[in-house]
Amino acid sequence: MQARLSKYRPRFTWKYICHAIECQICDDDICPQCLAEKHSLDHKFLRCQLTLFFWDIFQTWWTSKTKDNVTLTESMILYRIFVNREHLYSSNYSLLIAKYSICSSCLQEKKLCFDSFLTFLSEKINIHVQREIAVQNNNITKLKTIYRSLL
Q1: Stated pTM of the model
Q2: Regarding predicted confidence, which is higher, 79 or 80?
Q3: Measured in whole angstroms, how far is the alpha carbon of residue 74 from the centre of its chain?
Q4: Residue 90: exposed, middle, or buried by beta-carbon count in 10 A (0-12, 13-18, 19+)?
Q5: What residues does 30 pair with on adjacent strands?
Q6: For residue 105, how many other CB atoms are within 10 A of its CB?
């Protein structure tokens, strides 16, 4: 009986962890960014004052880079939908990386930093460009060697 139970323990633990994340359970239930409001996904991405400031900087940055004046709505932030835009893929990718940066800063209990987002975005784009160049030059083996620990 004990052997049968131990076989299911990892699955049970993983399901418990996933359920805890879905329920937004954490130790103190306070936003690690503003340290004032209840921590929830809605607050993390749409209501936290530091996140709102981050999104304001994001909009300004996006406009300065693309000349595409955009006002982020809640649905754009949550679902990364930029429709009928010239920069569809880059905008959606940038929003995805921005949300990753927000989550990462919360998990690491670091203050949200737009420069950190830009650095991470640049690294991700560089990896993508290296991959495309390797494919074009029929040299994907070298790229796989460089990133073998991540593949």
Answers
A1: 0.70
A2: 79
A3: 16
A4: middle
A5: 38
A6: 21
